[in-house]
UniProtKB/TrEMBL annotation:
This is Cytochrome C oxidase subunit IV family protein. It comes from Paenibacillus tritici. Its main location: membrane. Keywords: Cell membrane, Membrane, Transmembrane, Transmembrane helix. InterPro entries: Cyt_c_oxidase_su4_prok, Cytochrome_c_oxidase_bac_sub4. It comes from the Bacteria.
Length: 107
């Protein structure tokens, strides 16, 4: 009986562990909670308008990171090019908005 010896070319391969639904469920629940908090902040009406706007913007940014990281799988390897293009788009859009506001309110 002969036994196969592993060749020096074959390295130990690490198996990719499937993600499973657990993380997606947690992220979905977190997204729903953020949405409910935003709805409650606006529906309550007793909150300062500036605080409500800041709260909504912070929760919107959190939602964007959650959506892109988990639902669009940008947290996985091999997605650097789409991330670079999106960051470039965010930079151009942000610069355009800032310049438009500056242009409108500049005396």
């Amino acid at each position: 009986m002969t036994t196969k010896q592993p060749s020096s070319d074959s390295a130990v391969k690490h198996r990719h562990r499937p993600e499973g639904p657990q993380r997606h469920i947690v992220v979905f629940v977190f997204s729903v909670v953020l949405t409910l908090i935003a709805f409650a902040a606006v529906a309550a009406g007793g909150i300062n308008a500036t605080f409500a706007i800041i709260l909504l913007l912070v929760m919107a940014v959190l939602q964007v990171f959650l959506q892109m990281g988990f639902w669009m799988h940008l947290k996985d390897k091999g997605h650097m090019l789409p991330i670079i293009f999106m960051l470039g788009g965010f930079f151009i859009a942000g610069t355009s908005i800032i310049m438009a506001l500056y242009w409108v309110w500049w005396d």
